[in-house]
């Protein structure tokens, strides 16, 4: 039989207060919302910095045209059909999705789509890491 939620929370709170540093419990309780918002904003900004150059077709790092690089990667390395459409979806997810994630709108859906995108990239490319000058990109 499970205890009601209030009883479980009270018991968990009492257990936390018995730890070696009980004063940290109050700090963590106040810092938690700010921490989640900060993580969401930072991830959103990182995604925007990768999506906007694709959408605007401006240079990004050593890539003169990141959208063309994405299309080439999807078409010639991953051998997926409709490479321009998939590349546009990736650019929109990173650009517009990053903005929405940073401001906190649709976070669960966007975060799930980003996880699927990043897992697909990591699994498909494996140890070769052919983007960004043969180095591991900081968002993977």
Features:
5 helices, elongated, 71% helix, 140 residues
Describe the structure.
It is a single chain. The protein has 140 residues and is mainly alpha-helical. The longest helix has 34 residues. The mean pLDDT is 80. It has 5 helices and no strands. The radius of gyration is 21 Å and the shape is elongated.
Question: Would you list the SSEs in sequence order as H and E?
Answer: HHHHH
Shape: elongated
Low-confidence stretches: none
Biggest β-sheet: count, sense, barrel? none
Classify the secondary structure makeup into a structural class: mainly alpha
Work out the helix count. 5
Mean pLDDT: 80
Distance between the termini: 42 Å
Helices and strands in order, then pairings?
Blueprint (H helix, E strand, L loop, with lengths): L4 H13 L5 H34 L9 H12 L5 H21 L3 H19 L15
Helix pairs in contact: 2-4, 3-4, 4-5
